[in-house]
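Question (not urgent): is this output format expected?
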Amino acid sequence: MINDKKFNEYDSINYFDISKEVISFWKKNKIFQKSIETRPKDKIYPFYEGPPSANGMPGIHHVMARTIKDIFCRYKTLKGYRVYRKGGWDTHGLPVELQVEKKLGITKDDIGSKISVEEYNNECKKAVMQFKTKWEELTESIGYWLDINDAYITFDNNYIESVWWSLKKLYDNNLLYKGYSIQPYSPAAGTGLSSHELNMPGAYKTIKDTSLTAQFKISKNEKTNKIFGGKECYFTDGTV
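Got this back:
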């Protein structure tokens, strides 16, 4: 029997509506799941997404980065690999801590006195998942295939222990070394700063400081006259 099903025809193109139709078709027919299940079990290409932080809204740069990731996964799928795409959530970092401290009106020094460490950690866990739903909506709307139902979370003990296990393995194989480097430091936060944190909004601000300058007059004599030609000269010391 000849299948005479035709492609949909459109009088005008509305890319948003078309994308909704495609995504609906994918969901209804479980195309993502089938792209995995129809590939050999012994030909696996594992993919763990470098996890985004759900404490902030996603932006266009996240769409661009995920598009690039998706290209590699789809290419491997077309080459016959069973591509497991595991999503994740990055749930640590200075931005999360500062967000919570600002909300609660505390500083690092207040942790352990005005608020317990456990209470502080719980507030951070709430804040870091604040925009999780928005991220999930973005993931679907851009057609990014990702398993977010079984996502890994970096504050989960199993994940933390896996990181320590990995470090132990590196240490056992003499792949860790001690080095020194100059790192930016935040006295207010009491911690070192990453390049990402240095570019956060509000990391820099223009300020005006009063500068005091002390002048020390050079005595005139035969030796100084030879150097300065008999002019009145001063040594200065600038102090903020």
